[in-house]
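The passage that follows is intended for readers who have already worked through the single-chain material. We present the inputs for a multi-component assembly, then the predicted structure in tokenized form, and finally a short commentary. You are encouraged to pause after the input and sketch how you expect the pieces to fit together before reading on.
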Amino acid sequence: MQKASVSTTAPTLAHGPKTRLAWVGQGFLLILAVLALYIVVRNLIQDPVQFGQIIIGGLQLGFVYALIALGYTMVYGIVKLINFAHGDVFMVGAFVSFFSVTKFNLESWPAVVFPGLPAAVVVVIGTLTVILLSMIVCTVLAITIERVAYKPLRDAPRIAALITAIGVSFFLEYFGALKFVFTPEFIPYPSPFTVVTFYINNGIQMMVPGKPLPGHVVTFTSIFVIFIVATLLVQFLLQYLVHRTKIGIAMRATSFDKPAARLMGINVDQVISFTFAVGAAFAGLGGVLYAIAYSSIWTQLGILPGLKAFVAAVVGGIGSIPGAFVGALIMGLAENLTMGYISTPMRDAVAFTILILVLLIRPTGLFGEPEKEKA
Amino acid sequence: MLLEVQDLDVYYGAIHALQGISFNVEEGEIVSLIGANGAGKSTTLRTISGLLRPRHGSIKFRDQEITVIPAEKIVSLGISQVPEGRKIFAPLTVKENLDMGAYTRKDPVEIQQSMERVFTSFPRLKERLNQLGGTLSGGEQQMLATARGLMSHPSLLLLDEPSMGLSPILVEEIFRIIQEINAQGTSILLVEQNALMALSIAHRAYVLETGRIVLSGKASDLSQNSQVKSAYLGI
Ligand SMILES: Nc1ncnc2c1ncn2[C@@H]1O[C@H](COP(=O)(O)OP(=O)(O)OP(=O)(O)O)[C@@H](O)[C@H]1O
Ligand SMILES: [Mg+2]
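Having made your guess, compare it with the prediction:
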């Protein structure tokens, strides 16, 4: 879209004054990069433990973004739509798990159905059920959104669907804010399991509740570990899906050329629904993990993570699955480093500065290929 | 009758692209549709394969009305289109392109057999299985497009300008392969600008002019027809 036009118009302007301008721009960027590097390295040397802590926090944030960014990038890849409602699907994922834990005690169903099951097994199966339910609800929600709001606009100009996506996003946020839905309040989130904290001090140790930490050490929680496992699993799963399965190859074919895909017998509508479904399932997973990790939810919790995940997808090269992953980690790290070493309010500014820089320097992102004109 | 098209009217908005055309293809035939640029040849094929909907008229495939069937279902009835401009899936490998051609089929053994069969016609593809479709040469892409079209094991193959952009030697080769495919039992509806080549391998042909069929008959007769000679054969 816009980014493509930036790339195509830039070379035609690249005469005379452009070169001097480019010099100034590049010099500015260089100074910025050196400054950032200086801040990071100085702090790393001064306090490696704090640095490690910031990196862990950044990675965790990055994993959240990664789970959301996949949906953005996949949907964009197939219908060229920036699905702004995607961050709100993530929010719904968090709320569904909230209700299944507080209202239905879904996390403890194995103990009820099979009394005498070891507690650890109950926790694992119970939590997985909670996550699974959120993923399913998000999937159904996303398919419904696609069918109701986007499908009728598939042949309309892209901007129409984009505006609709923003509308759907607002709808979910403000419908959720109604008194009888999720309420507009911040709600404390009860984790379906007890989050344990580990610290690194002669290897990895588990923190005992009530006992103080042995001095200045790097800590991380079990949620962080779950994030790593979940995100990597999702990444591998997607790579497998997209390159090894028939439906995955059909997704790539459909994203490249829809009429040609139909001539192969591919049901394009189904493939598109499937793509929304997969993206939403991962957002649902991300929503639950996010809620557990940050232990408070409200109806607008999807907005900023959603936007940043979108930026992550653009940074990585929108349409590229590994790109979304790498872009998300970059975003998470950049944000947390900013929070740690500059100031908390700067985090959002830095996130969107990265977006602007990427669009200026490499509009196709790290892994993206230049958009080709189709014959 | 394998394919029977009757009084087909197709519009693009206000443009009346096909103005009541009728023709047919019998089992085992190569039928060619020739005509100048913009005559409506590709429109005809796109309507048969379901990408376009006619405003009036009927298309019967084995006596079944198919104008109401979505494109993706028409493939499994046994109609396969090799579109104009090849439309290879550039980011997919040759193998993946062929797999997509067989998308509607389930039995892996049969798919493998079809693949072996297309490799005997297009040995070059076998050497390039893992190459990306977009990096093939134009001629190789045409081979891949044709092979992909055959992977659904169609009883009717719709070919839209298979000779476009190919060197004369490759054109000969492609037409030889088309005859070969036909000899193995696939009926063919061949759209061509290269009327000379098309008429040399077709059994029958129709001449399309601005959305109307103006001439039809046996290919050998048409190639002697003075009107066809001057307008399409450049003789
Ligand atoms: N998508 C479209 N929108 C509007 N008009 C179209 C469209 N596609 C084709 N047409 C018009 O319909 C007519 C028939 O086009 P068609 O592509 O069927 O011609 P053709 O015989 O295949 O020509 P060629 O030999 O150049 O491929 C032309 O006048 C063309 O301009
Ligand atoms: Mg044409």
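Commentary: Confidence is low (pLDDT under 50) at residues 1-15 of chain A. The domain at 47-361 of chain A is CATH 1.10.3470 (ABC transporter involved in vitamin B12 uptake, BtuC). How closely did your sketch match?
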